[in-house]
Amino acid sequence: MTTVDAAPAGALAAGTVLAGIGVGRGVALAPVALVAAPPAIPADEPAPADPAAAEARLRAVLAEVGDDLRARSAATPNADLRSMLEAAATMAGDPALAAEAARLVHAGTGPATALDQAVEGFAAVFTAAGGDLAERATDLRSVRHRAVARLLGVPEPGLAPLDAPAVVVADDLSPADTAALDLSKVAAIVTELGGPTSHTAIVAGQLGLPCVVRVAGATGLAAGTPVLVDAAAGTVEVSPAAEAADRVARRAQDEAVVAAVTGPGATADGHEVPLLANVGTPDDARSAAPRTEGVGLFRTEVLFLDARTEPAVADQTAAYAEVIEAYAGRKVVIRTLDAGADKPLAFATQADEENPALGVRGYRLVRSLPGIVTRQLEALGAAVRALPAERQADVWVMAPMIATPAEARAFASAAREVGIVKVGVMVEVPAAALLAEAILAEVDFVSLGTNDLAQYTMAADRLRGELADLLDPWQPAVLSLVAATASAGVRVGKPVGVCGESASDPLMALVLAGLGITSLSMAAGRVPAARYALRSLTLEACRALAAAALAAPDAASARAAVRAGLDADVARVLLGED
Amino acid sequence: MPRRRARVATASGLHARPASLVTRKAAEGGHPVLIGREGEPGVDASSILSVMGLRLQHGDQIELSSTSEDAEALLDELAALLESDLDLVEQA
What we know:
In chain A, 47% of the residues lie in helices and 13% in strands. Chain A is an alpha/beta fold.
């Protein structure tokens, strides 16, 4: 077997192993389905030798795209998608679009460049007009992507419908791409870009799908090639040998061992560490409720980011109540809106920021759009007050992006005023971790968001996959801020949870328990492995592992130190080692 | 060269759906037709992209013209369409 770290020129030989960063622990064996990226226009496209023929080809391609879009429209059951496809089909057949592209071709422009310029001419007018018309620019560009792909003879962007389980391979998946997938046919997800905290990875975690990101050369795989995706090892093996099927079967047995451990999250000696779910919608909550002990992170922004107008207070209350009811009698931690220039709201104008991660986001919205923050708290307060008195303390509400004790105090007082009983804040800014005790004096609990804490501690953008090593939650600097926050909680006797993705790494779960973290929240699909890991060791052993991790000089040796402290069987099951 | 004047009657302006009713009629008519604000150069009335790009609003005075002498009836139909409130027309 050979390992490559760059895209090879030709087809990949059987047995080639591509390496990336694994997300989750699953393993899958299935053929590749490629999601093609929008085609790039060649910078030096030559002038057409025969402009008349080039024009004829352009017009034929636009007609084909129109027919194809119309056929897709007719075949789709989703009414919104159907009318979007129909509108795009009409644009593909637009006489002025073809005329402008033809004019450019006759003026000596290459056909793909001509089509691109013609589309951008109209799209610029639409974008400048804003509103409804600006959205049409997106439809128009989807026509451009398809037509240019045909002109250049490359695959059309997107994924053809899957008829059998497949490993979806893409540069990266946008939320729209993910929404278009038939998840019942997705065996695993492999991306060339992205990172372990990117959108793709988070979605894969929620669905319990094996996923490997940052796999150099992945998009060079030929469609239909069988690949073995091993998320625990972070590898993609091309056309694996026949024994691979045995490996998949053995791993399935190990997964059965993991799944057989049930009950609340606790160490071998009964120290409880509740295992909670990260959810975004009432549907997520209903699906996670039977498998988890509560909600550790309800991301309310999902309600807001898709909305064209601010959700009415009553509608917000109803959505919050649905999640609370899905977990009736159990804890639900609700995070207030975490939006900002990086996650813009369609209904509120926010200044463009050069550094959106460092800008007005999370609770800081109270500075620019205080009404949105106030109305959300009103809605949350109403959801709490509607509950019988003995259940009101089950609903915990926390604010994201708190940097100072004063911010924590202001949020807590506003929240208590509307009847919220349990108030907390996120610790994801290093300033908050350093002052955790002062912040805990203002609130009832804190929750560590380790993805952002790593981003801000290491000054490394979460969305820059090439910085993934710096974003590693095992980085000693990040671990020591987590440890400082946890011990502040122990000193003042208030809960300190973790709701970042690091809670879902079963080895990290042991360290966090050892540091005194009181609950772990993760994608519901990751809970069984964390439960199995915790049940394998006593609290004392977890403390020893935490001390070893904290003493390690770098991320890799911290993780290795914890790995070395595990029983061999446990390590094999958890890490998928053969 | 036949010409017609009309005033946009659709209350919400000639956005995507009402514009598509006009461009479809123009395309089915079989004659080249230009549409534009009075005094400005017109665009192809059968092009949804061009017509939406005009961003015609309620009350805008527009002019239709054709180089085809046989387009009189088509221009009458298009003018009548523009002078009705297309928000009230059910989508075909």
